[in-house]
Amino acid sequence: MILEMKVPSPGESITEVEIAAWLVEDGDYVEKDQAIAEVDSDKATLELPAEASGIITLKAEEGDAVAVGEVVCLIDTSAKAPESSTYDKGDEGGNENAEKDLAKDQKETPKKTDHVKADNPDQTQKASGIASPAAKKILAEKDLDPATVLGTGKDGRITKEDAVEAKPSMGTPTGGSRGESRSKLSMLRRKVAERLVQAKNETAMLTTFNEVDMSPIFDIRNKYKEDFKNKHGVGLGFMSFFTLAVVRALKLYPAVNSMIDGKEMITYDYCDISIAVSGPKGLMVPVIRNAENLTFRGVEAEVKRLALRARDGQITVDEMTGGTFTISNGGVFGSMLSTPIINPPQSGILGMHNIVERPVAVNGKVEIRPIMYVALSYDHRIIDGKESVGFLVAVKEALENPEELLMDNNLKKALEL
User: Could you confirm whether 408 is annotated as catalytic?
Assistant: First the structure.
């Protein structure tokens, strides 16, 4: 029986995917539920599992865009599994594969040779550096060295036409590599690019900045991080402090937790916080649902879970859909300051940056404190300057006084120790 495998729908509103990579070869025997391909949608990279065991016949090439529901491969379910895959490939299939590889090499070699000939019609022809009197005068006016000009005359002699067409060199090659490569952007990367341009073009985006003294958080982490990790199995990082500080600020300034839908403004009474993370296929933005109901332990556990799934390419479309506000941490890469771009249709994004010891004035004295610059980019169409600045100040206040504003003056209870 021949089974037609069709592209499943990876999520609502997705109509096509791209074959990022085949994990098997045409004619291989595959087991049911074995990952046979990686497919890119505009939101994530997902694995395509085999629907049955049998011999597979591929119907699409890597890089092809295929519609949801389109047949991408056939599986002959009547085929029996090979007794020994090592024997098949190493002994019986070895000569056949070698012959295929040899034929492939022989087939591709002329193409490579033809390409060289097309680019360089005469490989032995080089500039002699000898120019005709007329050519020499033109090259002198252009301040060009005759040795850098390819002559088309007899024995490589530089003609007047060669001198007229000659252009100044962009630099003298020093013998180093000057190669380049070209690769197709994944569907996910292309979609991210489209959304970023959309955000720049369709929102009245503005950014406000502030700085945060991270000393109180450093003190808490240094004192309790080992106990926290031993008790809960996750580290006490910065993301829980920032997430809960953002939740508090969103409650104080609900316009920041809103978005525009046509001529209407939708304001949410819950906080679904998107966390921008770097995955193997590019930027991923998984969502922490109902962050307002989570504790420090809950936030840290969810951040770890989502980050691991993004890193391993297991994140789903549903896990990246529906956030109401985004936090982006460029500080892990060493960024000192940036203007993060809004994640549409959201109206605000908080940018975290690296922590650097800086001299600051404290009670009339100069002290060295760990300082982080923070940035809030927002859609000025629905968020006024007063609300944006007030929101960022509220985040700053909570981070500089976490025990009172985030832990209700009961630090051990808040950390569940």
Answer: no
Inter-residue contact 392 to 231 (CB < 8 Å): no
Q: 259 is written with which tokens?
A: 């978005």
On the question of a cis peptide bond just before residue 345, with omega within 30 degrees of 0, the verdict is: yes
Domain boundaries, the chain: 2-76, 133-165, 188-414
**Average of per-residue pLDDT values in the chain:** 83
Query: Using one digit for the tens of pLDDT, what is the confidence trace for 162-210?
Result: 888 887 766 655 556 767 888 777 777 777 788 778 888 888 999 999 9
**Burial class of residue 180 in the structure, from the number of CB atoms within 10 Å of its CB (0-12 exposed, 13-18 middle, 19+ buried):** exposed
Homologous superfamily of 188-414: Chloramphenicol acetyltransferase-like domain (3.30.559.10)
Residue 312 is among the residues annotated as catalytic for this protein: no
Write down the catalytic residue from 101, 145, 384, 408.
384
Predicted TM-score of the model (pTM): 0.65
The residue from 76, 88, 318, 380 that is catalytic is 380
What's the CATH architecture for 2-76?
Answer: Beta Barrel (2.40)
> Do the beta carbons of residue 359 and residue 366 sit within 8 Å?
yes
272 near 287, Cβ under 8 Å? Answer: yes
CATH superfamily assigned to domain 133-165 = E3-binding domain (4.10.320.10)
Predicted confidence (pLDDT) per residue in 224-258, tens digit: 999 999 999 999 999 999 999 999 999 999 999 99
Q: What is the DSSP string of 215-265?
A: HHHHHHHHHHHHHHHHHHSS---SHHHHHHHHHHHHHH-GGGGEEEETTEE
